[in-house]
Design a protein that fits this description.
heterodimer, A: alpha+beta, 7-stranded mixed β-sheet, 3-stranded antiparallel β-sheet, 11 helices, elongated, B: alpha+beta, 7-stranded antiparallel β-sheet, 9 helices
């Protein structure tokens, strides 16, 4: 079973390329217009597709929703259906050719184990959406025909791939739906960057900004739907609280009831021996933290606040 | 030869001093032939450094001075030339730095190689935003053409002990190898070595020495320079101007390479040709051969945070022969993602990360793992 973040990364890889992974979105001239970028529809509803593909010349936009589980929200799909080319132009700021129509359609990317269940939920709700069903060994399109017939053919024929071809978290290492165990390595890498840089204190938001600023500036600016900011801050905060009380206790500590962490010990920049020793200790601490959190030894209080 | 350390105030004075030093030394040695008189004492040393420090003189001074001071250097910023910095160690050693280029510094000195190399390394390591200019093998090979010069010597160097555990190194076909050849016609010899099964995967260049003209030759032009993979240059000749032109040409080519990585591959938000928002960039992909070295040990060493890779991270195993690392580049303290498989490696280079990181990584992999490491050209556009 792939996580939400892994499914998003797969989508990006299917446009950007990743080893021998097929690139149907790139083949069909789709550009990657945004990842996790929220915008408000003209009717006031908020939409936050996980991936937005846009092909101006082919007059098409794809709103991709990644679903790791079996849940299905008919209202959410209805919002996707209400998104018009004018919304894409005026709210998502994509370029749309002036004359003629421009098609906007949703595509769900889901784990194969849940595809049947989601299709059934759609049926019960009297709606339908094409599903890109992803298994451990490949993907194929199921459900209703896409309006982009060429893309439909390319996806529906299915593709087999190996674990070697799966981007995992290559393009985007964390998102607002990541669990602490998924995001811990990248959060700790950023903490180390701050320790090496000689910072004396930092906020969880600083870590979030460093992690995703290049791909989703809205998260940093706190605009859009807002939910990505809160979600990621919560994950990062949980990780920092946990490691500060355990393997990183010699390095960082929460500053009382304030919303930042104090650096107790930075990495020497001049003394080479001390620097090497410090980095070695940090690496050991990092390895232990990742192993402990991923083994589920202790549940982080992420949802118990 | 005693070390010379005059007090210089401008780059113009530096140029005059080095020009005089070069020609005086050349003239003083009557037995000089192009290469025989070249020693590490009489050659001028230049260190090419990539800098992301602020270009505004006061901000630059603020970034440079504390670290230099901790290393025992006195930093002198010239009131007459804001693009000229002197680092002085005691009364005998000076490093004169021309910081006039926006991204690349040229640090000149006349001390012994070992001493100066150690100093420059410490300086680069201690200051965020400084790194060596890394000259990878394909780049070094093109220098003779760019400078219109011939190769008079080269050194190949492979040291897999840097990426494997000590206990495993003895089992490798080639754990460590250094070969240095002098003489004319070296282009063919390098190719011959490459084709030999004996040297398979171990032919990364450590340095290449090129010469243009002859001392006292009819064309009145002589410049011999040796470029090393860590951005060090040693020079001998009859004119500082000629040396300066050569350095500028090489740095210009280097800028093209580094900026090329950033422009073509830099992954992140941008604008498409029609001005609409889009996510630009793509993975940088390499072919890679492990040559019997255990990939796990390579990961551990490469991402340990020490030189020459200067990368820090904890590799995550995704499959039998697949690893991903969320790594920190200690040069700029920025994060980038590495992905390794049985036959290749990929980098996701975020838009704000310096392309120099890629050059450093690949150049050092060529030297310490496999000289066959090559960038794969993909057809997809950014």
């Amino acid at each position: 079973m792939w996580t939400h973040l892994q499914l998003v990364n797969l989508c990006i890889g299917m446009q950007k390329g990743f080893g021998s992974l097929p690139t149907p979105f790139w083949n069909q001239a789709y550009d990657l217009a945004g990842v996790g970028v929220g915008f408000t529809l003209s009717d006031g509803a908020v939409l936050c597709p996980d991936v937005l593909f846009h092909a101006a010349q082919r007059r098409r936009s794809l709103l991709v929703e990644a679903k790791a589980g079996a849940s299905f929200d008919a209202d959410q799909l209805a919002r996707y259906r209400r998104c018009t080319s004018a919304d894409i132009r005026d709210r998502a700021f994509c370029h749309i050719l002036p004359d003629g129509s421009h098609a906007v359609e949703p595509l769900y990317i889901v784990n194969e184990d849940h595809a049947e269940s989601i299709l059934a939920s759609c049926d019960r709700a009297g709606t339908a959406v094409p599903l890109l069903s992803v298994s451990a060994t490949g993907y194929r399109l199921v459900g209703p025909q896409m309006s982009d017939a060429a893309l439909d053919v390319e996806l529906r024929s299915g593709v087999a791939f190996s674990a070697e071809d799966f981007p995992s978290r290559f393009f985007m290492p964390i998102d607002n739906e990541s669990s602490p165990s998924e995001g811990i390595d990248v959060v700790l890498a950023e903490v180390v960057a701050m320790l090496v840089g000689g910072l004396t204190r930092f906020k969880p938001e600083d870590v979030v900004a460093r992690m995703v600023s290049n791909i989703n500036p809205e998260v940093v600016r706190g605009i859009g739907s807002g939910s990505p900011v809160k979600g990621m801050n919560r994950v990062v905060r949980a990780i920092l609280d946990d490691v500060a009380a355990n393997e990183f206790s010699a390095w960082i500590e929460p500053a009382g009831n304030q919303d930042f962490f104090k650096v107790k010990q930075a990495i020497s920049r001049v003394d080479r021996q001390a620097r090497v020793r410090g980095l070695r200790s940090l690496r050991a601490a990092m390895r232990k933290s990742v192993a402990r959190v991923r083994s589920g030894e202790r549940q982080l209080p992420l949802f118990g606040e | 030869m005693p070390l010379e350390s005059p007090k210089l105030r401008t780059r113009r004075e530096l140029a005059a001093f080095l020009d005089d030093a070069l020609s005086r030394r050349l003239g003083a040695d009557h037995a000089l032939t192009a290469d025989s008189a070249w020693t590490e004492h009489n050659a001028l040393k230049i260190f090419l450094i990539e800098s992301h420090l602020p270009s505004e003189p006061h901000a630059r001074a603020a970034a440079l001075e504390p670290a230099a001071s901790q290393l025992g250097f006195t930093t002198e910023f010239s009131p007459d030339d804001p693009d000229f910095v002197t680092l002085r160690f005691g009364s005998s050693t000076s490093i004169w730095i021309d910081v006039s280029l926006p991204r690349f510094w040229r640090a000149y000195c006349l001390g012994t190689v070992t001493e100066v190399k150690r100093t420059i390394r410490s300086l680069v390591r201690s200051i965020d935003g400084l790194d060596h200019v890394w000259l990878a093998t394909p780049f070094l090979e093109k220098i003779p053409t760019w400078l219109g010069a011939s190769i008079t010597a080269f050194a190949i160097h492979s040291d897999r002990r840097k990426v494997t555990l000590r206990a495993n190194a003895d089992a490798l076909p080639i754990a460590q190898l250094t070969v240095r050849l002098w003489g004319t016609g070296q282009e063919n010899r390098l190719e011959a070595i490459r084709k030999s099964e004996l040297f398979r995967g171990s032919t990364a260049l450590r340095s290449i020495r090129v010469r243009r003209g002859r001392p006292g030759g009819e064309d009145g032009e002589y410049l011999a320079t040796e470029f090393f993979s860590d951005g060090r240059v040693t020079a001998y000749g009859d004119s500082f101007d000629r040396l300066n032109s050569a350095l500028l040409k090489v740095l210009d080519k280097y800028r093209t390479v580094v900026c090329g990585f950033e422009d073509q591959f830099g992954f992140g938000c941008g604008r498409s040709a029609d001005g609409a928002p889009h996510v630009r960039g793509r993975p940088i992909e390499f072919s890679l051969a492990w040559h019997g070295v255990d990939p796990s040990s390579v990961m551990r060493k490469v991402f340990s945070g020490t030189g020459p890779f200067a990368l820090f991270g904890e590799p995550q195993r995704l499959a039998q022969s697949r690893w991903q690392v969320q790594a920190i580049d200690l040069h700029m303290r920025q994060r980038l993602t590495f992905d390794f498989s049985q036959d290749g490696a990929r980098i996701c280079l975020p838009t704000d990360v310096c392309g120099n990181t890629v050059v450093r990584f690949v150049g050092n992999l060529q030297r310490h793992l496999s000289s066959d490491t090559k960038l794969l050209e993909l057809v997809k556009s950014a």
